[in-house]
Design goal:
This protein is an alpha/beta fold. The chain folds into two domains: 257 residues, TIM Barrel (Alpha-Beta Barrel), CATH 3.20.20.100; 111 residues. Helix content is 51%, strand content 13%. It contains 17 helices and 13 strands. The strands form three sheets. The chain has an eight-stranded parallel beta barrel with strand order 1-2-3-7-8-9-10-13, surrounded by six helices. A hairpin with a 2-residue loop joins strand 5 and strand 6. The radius of gyration is 25 Å and the shape is globular.
């Protein structure tokens, strides 16, 4: 195998994904805290946040004369960019080779589109040089093309054609000094990924060589990698080599994202103790009792509201909406993890309660109904709190059970540090992983991530990660 020298722009070992910047009023403060803690690498996805993070980085950089290292992910069209694409289509000048994946999401890596996006990135960043650009999830185009009826081989051939043109444009940007490197972000480089699709990584390297020669700038690979998704370090997929071994041999810097947020059997798992105080396990019978109280409160509220002079439509809407207690009774115990429960509570259940409050607001005209509504909300919050305590206690127990498994796999003692720090340290000591991207919305969390660099562990190779697979059983059997 032809080996290549490592690129001359080594990435910092820890970077910050800006995906949590947009909703934060203190995004600039978070940026400054990260910089003070030594973070120099920032990963942006301008389509996801309409360029907010890049504008924040650019304004801060211009005022402080500090220059962060920026990796920008492009290819997806969401938000304002998606609507811009619709407007262009109506005006008769659509983006070339645009694939509309679904409502609200399109995909494009045509050179004209990439040129527009890179120009806008530079304008927001207020300087001309991005360290690198990665093309987001090319497998989404492959999935779309197959769904359109194109045979798999033809769909893959078309994807490689589009990638070749994209690579040629990005090579030109690098040769002109506007970029230092480019690459891809993908979750489909391993045969058993969540999708049945598979991107042929050696062919991507050959594409880069065909357009840029041996000194090509295809030097970045962003992949999910964590304690429960370490297949890139284990599975021999390319000539007996793992994906990490192959990438290192060709001078490609691998950046791990989602280091603390695994997907296990399609469900989210946070590789950290829950962000709540360690609690005593709540009994299942106690929760059932709380839910019986909630059912009673919902029945009382329904009886009071349906006794009001409602029209037929209002009466039906009230009856259909006041079924939350029945949903919880049937499903509260079915969640795979604390994270799975929190996602349901903060998403579906919160939206249900918001919609219900909006529906009932004009109906709560009597003192009795208003009081019963307050009782209903209190009973619901108590039930949700107790269910959350149960799942949190299970998560703490999960973390406790993981530690001896990790010590046995590594064959060395592990210091008593938070699980998140340990999980990051495992990745940092993995041969073939150059950098880790973490997502954070608090300075304290950033400081905890930085602390993981103080942990000393032996180098982790395929053998160690194979033994670490025993940790996965803690989740698959018992939680």
């Amino acid at each position: 195998m032809l080996q290549h020298q490592a690129p001359d722009f080594p990435l910092p070992s820890l970077g910050l994904s800006t995906c949590r910047f947009p909703p934060l009023p203190n995004a600039r403060d978070l940026l400054e805290q990260a910089w003070r803690h030594g973070v120099r690498l920032f990963a942006t996805a301008p389509s996801t946040d309409d360029g907010f993070s890049e504008s924040t980085l650019g304004e801060w950089s211009a005022q402080t004369q500090q220059y962060p290292i920026v990796l920008a992910s492009v290819g997806l069209l969401e938000g304002m960019l998606y609507h811009r694409a619709l407007e262009r289509e109506h005006e008769g000048r659509p983006y070339l080779e645009l694939a509309r994946l679904r409502d609200g999401l399109s995909y494009c890596i045509h050179p004209d589109f990439l040129q527009e996006q890179l120009q806008e990135c530079r304008q927001r960043l207020r300087h001309n040089l991005l360290l690198g650009v990665v093309l987001q999830q090319p497998e989404l185009f492959l999935q779309w093309a197959i769904a359109q009826g194109l045979p798999r081989d033809e769909a893959q051939h078309e994807l490689l054609r589009r990638l070749e043109y994209a690579f040629a444009f990005l090579e030109q940007e690098c040769q002109q000094g506007y970029l230092r490197s480019y690459g891809i972000q993908s979750e489909c480089l391993l045969p058993h990924s969540a999708s049945s699709l598979l991107l042929p990584f050696p062919e991507l390297v050959e594409l880069a060589r065909s357009v840029g020669g041996e000194e090509h700038h295809f030097r970045l690979l962003l992949i999910p990698f964590n304690l429960f998704e370490p297949q890139a370090a284990i599975e021999p997929v390319i000539g007996g080599q793992t994906l990490l071994e192959y990438a290192v041999g060709y001078g490609i810097q691998v950046v791990a994202y989602r280091p603390l947020n695994a997907q296990l059997n399609g469900r989210p798992v946070l590789i950290a103790e829950p962000p709540v105080a360690k609690t005593t396990l709540v009994s299942v019978e106690h929760i059932r009792g709380q839910l019986r109280e909630f059912v009673h409160a919902e029945t009382q509220l329904l009886r009071s509201l349906t006794s009001l002079p409602l029209n037929g439509v209002q009466r039906d809407m009230v009856r259909e909406s006041l079924t939350l207690s029945l949903f919880l009774q049937d499903h509260w115990h079915e969640f795979a993890s604390y994270e799975d429960w929190i996602r349901m509570q903060s998403g579906y259940l919160t939206e249900r309660l918001r919609s219900l409050a909006q529906l009932l607001k004009p109906l709560l005209t009597t003192t009795g109904a208003e009081q019963e509504w307050q009782t209903y909300r209190a009973r619901l919050q108590q039930a949700l709190s107790d269910i959350g305590r149960l799942y949190a206690a299970r998560a703490w127990e999960r973390a406790r059970r993981l530690r001896p498994v990790l010590e046995e796999a590594l064959q060395c003692p592990i210091p008593p540090v938070p699980l998140a720090q340990l999980a990051l340290a495992l990745i940092r000591h993995t041969e073939g992983i150059r950098s880790i991207l973490v997502a954070s919305s608090s300075a304290d969390h950033i400081a905890e991530n930085i602390a993981s660099h103080n942990l000393s562990l032996p180098p982790l190779r395929r053998q160690q990660w194979t033994r670490l697979q025993a940790a996965r059983l803690i989740l698959e059997h018992g939680f």
